[in-house]
Amino acid sequence: MDxxxxxxxxxxxxxIFESSGVVVVAHYEGLTVAEMxxxxxxxxxxxxxxxxxxxxxxxxALEGKPCESMAQYLSGMTVLTYSEDPVxxxxxxxxxxxxxxxxxxxxxxxxxxxxxxAGVEAVSKMPSREELIAxxxxxxxxxxxxxxxxxxxxxxxxxxxxxxxEDKAAA
Length: 171
Description:
The chain contains 6 helices and 5 strands. It is an alpha+beta fold and about 170 residues long.
């Protein structure tokens, strides 16, 4: 890899560190190509990404970034799992680590906050952006449907009463 390619990789990694909601660092020593492809596929399904990069280049890219403190986890054979959603990458990494003992999560970063192993696990248990939006919409929609039901119910009750009165008057 020549200097220009290295500079390009450092720039790409810098963008990842700045724009990602969460970055998880893990060791992947011993994983097969098929297992790595499986990890990448799971990440794609969750709108996350997986990237293997040289630790030295990643450390250079971290310089001056809010999540610079996660550089301590960049040693050995590391892989980065990241996403814009502050939860998606952590969920993917945790799920994969549960099913594969060779994938060892070291830590990561969420914005300016460095995460240790327990921090990544805690983030993975949080609801995702889509789950939060769905619950908020449900909370907003429930009172509206209750109001519509309350407004509609008296009208149907009145119509039923009027129908009964008509039947009695006709008889």
